[in-house]
């Protein structure tokens, strides 16, 4: 598919539902795109759904430059970098204490406004827009951030899957020019061969492929 649209995700989850039969997944981990959240809820109901902490951390870093001239931005970036260190049920309380301390010291910056020059339709905008976005990212609806602490079978990130996807994208890049049908066939065979570990299985697969 060309994008992670709801239609694409619905198609894949529908196929997965048929394979699973009456069994539901133990949980889900995603980057929390709206189409994925809606798709999981539509097909699997209220299963535990972990928001990938690695994605949250990367998004926060994009909004909070390392060399920002603002102390508040650099301080919030340091707090965001601690998110991946959450391991124990009490850790979110400690992490939120850091956020509360930051808000007490720098919270006024979240509401600072810049007046628009004469002749512009907009009257004003928030002076520190990215700071506000990062703050909301880290503080709004935190429940999906810590599902893995309640259900230990669910990982805190989908990095393992991201590594596979990144490798597949690289393989497609190495074979540019294939049409979509050939790309799909190539990826299917690549996945099949790389996941067949024993010489016996590889020989059988190679015989079938020829």
Write a structural description.
The protein is mostly helical and 210 residues long. It has helices spanning 6-20, 34-44, 53-63, 71-81, 91-106, 129-139, 147-150, 159-174, 180-194, 199-209, and strands at residues 28-30, 49-51, 113-115, 124-126. The strands form 2 sheets. Strands 1-2 form a two-stranded parallel sheet. A two-stranded antiparallel sheet has the order 3-4. Helix 2 links the parallel strand 1 (28-30) and strand 2. The longest helix has 16 residues, at 91-106. The chain is elongated and about 70 Å long. The protein starts with 5 loop residues before the first helix and ends with a helix.
Number of strands: 4
Helix content: 55-70%
Average the pLDDT over all residues and give the rounded result. Answer: 91
Q: What is the string of helix and strand elements?
A: HEHEHHHEEHHHHH
Topology:
Elements: H1 6-20, E1 28-30, H2 34-44, E2 49-51, H3 53-63, H4 71-81, H5 91-106, E3 113-115, E4 124-126, H6 129-139, H7 147-150, H8 159-174, H9 180-194, H10 199-209
Parallel strand pairs: 1-2
Antiparallel strand pairs: 3-4
Helix pairs in contact: 1-2, 3-6, 4-5
């Amino acid at each position: 598919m060309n994008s992670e649209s709801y239609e694409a995700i619905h198609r894949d989850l529908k196929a997965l539902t048929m394979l699973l039969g009456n069994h539901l997944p133990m949980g889900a981990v995603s980057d929390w795109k709206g189409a994925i959240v809606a798709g999981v809820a539509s097909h699997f109901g209220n299963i535990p759904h972990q928001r990938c902490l690695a994605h949250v951390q990367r998004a926060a870093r994009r909004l909070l430059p390392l060399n920002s001239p603002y102390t508040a931005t650099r301080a919030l970036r340091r707090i965001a970098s601690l998110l991946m260190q959450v391991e124990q049920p009490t850790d979110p309380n400690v992490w939120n204490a850091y956020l509360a301390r930051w808000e007490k010291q720098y919270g006024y910056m979240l509401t600072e406004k810049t007046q628009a020059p004469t002749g512009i339709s907009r009257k004003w905008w928030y002076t520190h827009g990215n700071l506000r976005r990062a703050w909301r990212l880290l503080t709004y609806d935190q429940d999906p951030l810590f599902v893995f602490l309640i259900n230990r079978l669910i990982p805190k990130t989908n990095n393992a899957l991201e590594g596979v996807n990144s490798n597949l994208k690289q393989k497609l890049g190495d074979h540019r020019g294939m049409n979509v049908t050939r790309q799909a066939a190539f990826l299917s065979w690549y996945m099949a061969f790389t996941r067949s570990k024993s010489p016996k299985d590889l020989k059988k697969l190679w015989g079938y492929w020829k």
